[in-house]
């Protein structure tokens, strides 16, 4: 099956930040699933940067020439670097359109999603299931997780006891991480593409080499959010220490496949406990890795999308 991805090339459509995470979340996993010959990318931000004009005409020409079986769209909220409604309608008249939503806990995303539903066959949401009661056609929505490149995340040598890899300028993260760095010997914090840039490979390698990975689920919306770190950590064989939330608890069994925490003291004490009880830590990490590897790998993700389409 030939898939044309209509997505931004750069993270937040900002050339200075670098290539979007979709490169390994979606493009690489699709190539692994369907073959490189069945992948093409058209990026409206890159086209405008190169040619100084919108890419609608060129995008439609590519659809006509390459004749994809479907389009995978990533609509960028609040940007003019998206296909116009006329372009989207013309594509939809020929082939199915799949849209992915990364932050559907925000009302603005739900509203925009509803606005373009005339030209979308399937919506894939990867961060929350709470939106179902807010949309007009819930049968057109599929709640999944963030797919991960199998070549990046796998169990490695766990020479780092505990760490957090990601941005801290969000909710109460910074206070918690600074506290852990002060009270947990050897606790590591790195990454956050807008704070302390990590290469893709460096970021993944950190997970492969870390025994316990902290994760947050709180968001500025006030609702818990499933994030890619959940699957990254479990595929890499880490003990996932995740802020308590219903989404992760619906995918993994708390206490047996990952460990929940509710506040700073709870998290700190659990890191100390599992540092001292390594066999127990490894048993939970191995169970989480086994579930992620079997049920939440990228081939299962794409199989599920294709069946729903």
UniProtKB/TrEMBL annotation:
Spore protein YkvP/CgeB glycosyl transferase-like domain: residues covered: 193-306
Q: Enumerate the GO terms in the molecular function aspect.
A: transferase activity
Keywords, in A-Z order: Transferase
Q: Quote any Pfam family the record assigns.
A: Glyco_trans_1_2
* Cited InterPro entries: YkvP/CgeB_Glyco_trans-like (IPR055259)
Its name, as the record gives it, is: Putative glycosyltransferase
Biological classification of the source: unclassified sequences, metagenomes, organismal metagenomes
């Amino acid at each position: 099956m030939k898939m044309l991805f209509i997505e931004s090339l750069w993270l937040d459509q900002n050339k200075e930040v670098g290539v979007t995470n979709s490169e390994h979340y979606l493009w690489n996993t699709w190539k692994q699933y369907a073959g490189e010959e069945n992948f093409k990318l058209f990026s409206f931000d890159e086209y405008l940067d190169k040619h100084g004009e919108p890419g609608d005409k060129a995008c439609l020409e590519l659809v006509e020439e390459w004749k994809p079986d479907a389009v995978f769209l990533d609509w960028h909220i609040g940007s003019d670097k998206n296909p116009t409604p006329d372009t989207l309608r013309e594509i939809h008249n020929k082939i199915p359109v799949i849209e992915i939503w990364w932050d559907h806990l925000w009302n603005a995303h739900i509203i925009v999603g509803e606005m373009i539903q005339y030209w979308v066959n399937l919506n894939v949401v990867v961060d929350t299931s709470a939106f179902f009661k807010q949309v007009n056609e819930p049968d057109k929505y599929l709640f999944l997780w963030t797919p991960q490149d199998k070549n990046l995340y796998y169990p490695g040598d766990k020479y780092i006891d505990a760490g957090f890899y990601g941005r801290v300028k969000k909710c109460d993260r910074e206070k918690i991480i600074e506290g852990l760095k002060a009270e947990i010997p050897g606790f590591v914090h790195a990454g956050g593409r807008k704070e302390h840039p990590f290469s893709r490979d460096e970021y993944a390698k950190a997970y492969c080499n870390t025994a316990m990975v902290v994760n947050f689920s709180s968001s500025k919306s006030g609702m818990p959010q499933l994030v890619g770190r959940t699957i990254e950590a479990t595929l890499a064989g880490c003990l996932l220490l995740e802020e308590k939330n219903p989404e992760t608890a619906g995918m993994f069994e708390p206490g047996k496949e990952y460990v929940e925490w509710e506040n700073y003291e709870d998290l700190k004490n659990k890191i100390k406990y599992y540092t001292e009880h390594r066999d127990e830590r490894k048993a939970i990490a191995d169970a989480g890795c086994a579930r992620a590897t079997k049920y939440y790998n990228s081939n299962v993700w794409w199989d599920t999308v294709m069946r729903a389409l």
